[in-house]
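lol ok so funny story. i was supposed to be doing the assay writeup but got distracted and ended up predicting the structure for this chain instead. priorities right. anyway since i did it might as well share w the group, maybe its usefull for someone
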Amino acid sequence: MKLWILVVVVLTGAGVYVLMTSRSADYLELTAPEAQRLVAAGDVTLIDIRTPEEWRQTGVPRNAKLVNMVHPGGVDGFVSEILDQVDGDADAPIALICRTGNRTTQVQRLLVARGFGQVYNISEGMVGSSAGPGWLKRGLPIEPYPNQ
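and the output, tada:
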């Protein structure tokens, strides 16, 4: 497995961001702060794939779309709902977040296999992992789960 660093320069109305993204095979990663900046600038759709119970426990990242990975429509229903969140554009940039990055790793592979072109994994997740301290410990903006 080859590991290399991809440097991406993103030009937005809010400024220029340089992202240091670790890439293995075709799988892209973002840190939580990188994802938050891109979401705030409107350059990526953030999708939280955790369960409603997890959303209630911690709140959700500001501006995240909520798509429960345990979908009543199974895998096809889940993929269809993700596609709906990006207005049917499978090439739109998507950043996935879960608790610790394990589930998003699997979902990222699924979405790439299903033809999605720009799927980023926030591998530190909400609560942290070996990839980083996580969205919550970094103090990034969260909102309460709307169905509390």
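Confidence is low (pLDDT under 50) at residues 1-25. The two ends are 43 Å apart (CA to CA).
back to the writeup now i swear
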